[in-house]
């Protein structure tokens, strides 16, 4: 399959310290700003970013299973993900200070197509990746403008 793998990296600016910004990219943190994002945990988890945590999402007509693969508390989290019959891979989110009191959040998708349909999905995803991340930045900025409460990451 041509175009069967992609590695995409981009940045999202978040007007929060890095640890707080990273908390917005956990399964429950994304519920605060991603329309339709409703993670389901087959086994209840008090810490949704603990390595080994499994959750599922249903979005845009697709079912995806996610596993927290790695975490560096307050700095980085990585997820393994599989959308059956379409694509699988890893998503890594890392937050660092931007020098102005906010965070520069780097988001990397490393995905492999599992079918011809998956190749088409990856191609479309890659073509729209920059605007995809811009929409995330805008949605998070809107959340913060609304004055949503901040929380401690300790």
Description:
The termini are far apart. Strand 2 and strand 3 (62-72) form a beta hairpin. The protein has 154 residues and is α+β, with helices and mostly antiparallel strands. The mean pLDDT is 92. The protein has helices at 18-23, 27-30, 116-127, 129-145; strands at 5-14, 54-59, 62-72, 76-83, 87-97, 103-113. It has a 6-stranded antiparallel sheet. The chain contains 4 helices and 6 strands; from the N terminus they run E-H-H-E-E-E-E-E-H-H.
Please specify the SSE layout and strand pairing.
Elements: E1 5-14, H1 18-23, H2 27-30, E2 54-59, E3 62-72, E4 76-83, E5 87-97, E6 103-113, H3 116-127, H4 129-145
Antiparallel strand pairs: 1-6, 2-3, 3-4, 4-5, 5-6
Instruction: Report Rg.
Output: 15 Å
Regions with pLDDT < 50 over 5+ consecutive residues? none
Give the structural class: alpha+beta
Mean pLDDT across residues: 92
Intertermini distance: 45 Å
- In which range does the helix fraction lie? 25-40%
Question: How does the overall form come out from the CA principal axes?
Answer: globular
Q: H/E series, N to C?
A: EHHEEEEEHH
Question: Treating each run of at least 4 consecutive H or I residues as one helix, how many helices?
Answer: 4
Report the strand count.
6
Strand order of the largest sheet: 1-6-5-4-3-2
What portion of residues belong to β-strands?
A: 35-45%
The biggest sheet, with number of strands, parallel, antiparallel or mixed sense and barrel status, is: 6 strands, antiparallel
């Amino acid at each position: 399959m041509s175009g069967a793998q992609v590695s995409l990296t981009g940045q999202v600016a978040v007007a929060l310290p890095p640890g707080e910004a990273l908390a917005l990219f956990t399964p429950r943190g994304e519920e605060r700003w991603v329309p339709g994002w409703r993670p389901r945990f087959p086994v209840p988890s008090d810490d949704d970013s603990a390595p080994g945590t499994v959750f599922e999402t249903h979005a845009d007509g697709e079912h995806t299973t996610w596993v927290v693969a790695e975490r560096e508390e307050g700095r980085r989290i990585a997820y393994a993900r599989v959308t059956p019959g379409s694509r699988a891979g890893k998503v890594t989110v890392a937050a660092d200070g931007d020098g102005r009191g906010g965070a520069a959040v780097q988001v990397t998708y490393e995905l492999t197509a599992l079918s011809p349909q998956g190749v088409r999905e990856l191609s479309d995803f890659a073509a729209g990746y920059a605007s995809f991340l811009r929409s995330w930045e805008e949605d998070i900025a809107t959340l913060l403008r609304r004055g949503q409460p901040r929380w401690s990451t300790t």
